[in-house]
Amino acid sequence: MESYYIFSNGKLMRKDNNICFDEKFLKIEMTNDIYLFGEVDLNSKCLNFLGQNKVSIHFFNYYGFYTGSFFPKETNVSGKLLVKQVNYFQNEIQRVEIAKEIIKSACSNIFRNMRYYNGRGKDLNYEMEIIKNFQLQIDNLKTVSEIMGIEGNIRKVYYSAWNKLINQEINFEKRVKRPPDNMINTLISFINSLMYTTCLGEIYKTQLNPTISYLHSPGDRRFSLCLDISEIFKPLVVDRMIFSLLNKKIITEDDFETKSNFCYLKEKGKKKILVEYENRLKRTITHKDLGREVTYKYLIRLECYKLIKHLLGDKKYCGFKMWW
User: Fold this and answer.
1) Residue 155, strand partner residues
2) Of 117, 183, 217, 320, which has the fewest beta carbons less than 10 angstroms from its beta carbon?
3) For the CA atoms of the chain, what is the radius of gyration?
4) Would you list which residues are annotated within the binding site for Mn(2+)?
5) What is the DSSP code string of 117-143?
6) Dihedral sign from CA coordinates of 303, 305, 308, 314
7) Which is it for strands 40-41 and 284-286: parallel, antiparallel or unpaired?
């Protein structure tokens, strides 16, 4: 199944039993989702057809910021699992248990990234030692707010090391989101949003409800479970991808536009990133438990299945941790 990325302006429409954009046909049976970065018109006839074929659409504004998604009607629904999801959220002890495991996995994957570069000429011993100390504190935390506090501290130390990890001259002092103020913050925001939509798509293929989460607080107008799952996989997909794009000079200052304190990607930069992002999701590893090759993207769905087993009382949840 493929993802299609549309940057130009035009009309997305149903034509016979297919989807057409500016006289170009998309193979509906091979389409997983569509990403719209341009000004695209579409009508209910088109949306109904996409919904019938279980094709999702993700919308981004001119600056590349994610604005929302259209998802077909859910077919994988389970009232039993929904009740379990809610019960685990309402039970503080059970919620904290899941939140801790998410942060342990995220922290372990962050540490793997730092250890990788520390063995390749980057002196990260100081930052790694601080993160180790934070890791040791996780088991003793009692509330989700305390866990989020540790997560913020870990990220702060991790980001402070990025100037050592990245070979281009970029002054990256802290994470700035709204709006991103330099190349690195812009890359993080853009690729994180891609990761959120990928996680949402994988959650949609399971019986989990994407609005009920454990680390991040559920709220109106957001799929907070995507934020939970993405914390685990951002170090593997997003962060390693940013290091590679910048260190190999695939992405340079020429791929960005700056206005006042606002930095955003040009179209050519977005296109290069999307090619690399798709390639990353298609990478495979030999899964230790399954004994077969699985893609990075499928690892995300496996994470959802592990959470389902935990909620149903079949097997205790153990978050994904890189071993290579």
Assistant:
1) none
2) 217
3) 20
4) 151, 216, 231
5) HHTTT---HHHHHHHHHHHHHGGG--S
6) negative
7) unpaired
Residue 298's DSSP bridge partners are none
Alpha-carbon distances, residue 304 vs 74, 199, 214, 320 (angstroms):
16, 9, 13, 11
Annotated binding site: 151, 216, 231
The DSSP line for 151-188 is: HHHHHHHHHHTHHHH--S-----S---SS--SHHHHHH
Pair 137, 150: CB distance under 8 Å: yes
Domain ranges of the chain: 2-70, 79-311
pLDDT in tens, the chain (324 residues): 789 999 999 999 998 888 888 888 888 888 889 999 989 999 999 999 999 999 999 999 888 889 888 888 877 778 999 999 999 999 999 999 999 999 999 999 999 999 999 988 889 999 999 999 999 999 999 999 999 999 999 999 999 999 888 888 776 766 777 678 788 899 999 999 999 999 999 999 999 999 999 999 887 667 899 999 999 999 999 999 999 999 999 999 999 988 877 888 999 999 999 999 999 999 999 998 888 999 999 999 999 999 999 999 999 999 999 988
Strand partners, 36: 6, 59
Looking at the domain 79-311, which fold is it?
Four Helix Bundle (Hemerythrin (Met), subunit A) (1.20.120)
* Tokens encoding 278: 């798709």
* CATH architecture of the domain covering 2-70: Ribosomal Protein L15; Chain: K; domain 2 (3.100)
